Amino acid sequence: MLDETIITQAIIESYLNELIKNLKVDVIIAGAGPSGLVASKYLAEANLKTVIFERKLSIGGGMLGGGMMFNNIVVQDDAKRIMDEFNIKTQKYKENYYIADAIESVAKLTSKAIDAGVKIFNLISVEDVKIDSDFRVNGAVINWTSVEMAKLHVDPMTFESRCLVDTTGHDASVVNVVLKKIPNAKLNTPSGKIEGELSMNAEIGEKILLETTKEIYPGLYVAGMAANACSGGQRMGPIFGGMLLSGEKVAKIIIDKMK
Ligand code: 48F
């Protein structure tokens, strides 16, 4: 005999318990694309309590669609070791170019992050940041994506963290909110504002990404495409090594700072 009430109660109770367990964490990551997933695994392995809020139903961001929906991805030599660490199969295409299946890549990034202890909540958007009295970021203000989509007037709720990572991709949506809502916010960029992403150059974009991955505002870090969008880096299309290395780098910066 299966009892629908028990099924419903099991879901509601366990979900709420998970939410409550994550009310106060070390690191909140906005966006479960490749850079956010990689960062989360390394942070959790360093015993930092890490949670990801992902706006969409699906996990993986732009990695899932490969290039123009041909869903294979390319990685270069520098990042091959990270593919190996996540147990993602790669095939050498030419010197310095490896291909991998986009779906396998997302599945394994996700699975290894979860195995390391990361909690991922999908269908939830980070719509604002929490700040302390010195305007340092120390949490995320979140709401159901469906509320955002329907433009319902429903107040969000707040989750506290020692720091927040914006891995929301091209939109850099959390950094944008900080600029808009914190008076005189000055980013760690040449102009103190968002420089904006530059047109495609895979070679430069991938290299510069390791410099643009950083603490961009007190308590707020950027990685992945959001980092290049903030600091005026080139876009790079469906080569993903930089995203993996950027996720690894932001985790290292945070671990060094927090330990
Ligand atoms: O865009 P996305 O994959 O970010 P990434 O890790 O990787 C970029 C590449 O996919 C690709 C590229 C490679 O050369 O340029 O574009 O930098 O994933 C970003 C994730 O963040 C979610 C969004 O749904 C996506 O899954 N997201 C965006 N805004 C929010 C958010 C938000 N405000 N709150 C929560 N999630």
Question: Any overview of this molecule?
Answer:
The chain is of the alpha/beta class. It has a single domain, classed as FAD/NAD(P)-binding domain, CATH 3.50.50. 40% of the residues lie in helices and 24% in strands. Strands 1, 2, 6, 7, 8, 9, 10 and 11 form an eight-stranded mixed sheet that branches. The structure holds ligand 48F. Ligand 48F binds next to helix 2, strand 2, strand 7 and helix 8.
Task: Please identify the top-level CATH class.
Answer: Alpha Beta
CATH fold-level assignment = FAD/NAD(P)-binding domain
Number of helices: 9
The helix/strand series, from N terminus to C terminus, equals HEHEEHEEHEEEHEHHEEHH
- What share of the residues does DSSP label as strand, in percent? 15-25%
Q: Quickly count the domains.
A: 1
CA-CA gap between termini:
51 Å
CATH architecture type: 3-Layer(bba) Sandwich
* Amount of helix: 40-55%
Mean pLDDT: 98
Q: Give unreliable regions as ranges.
A: none
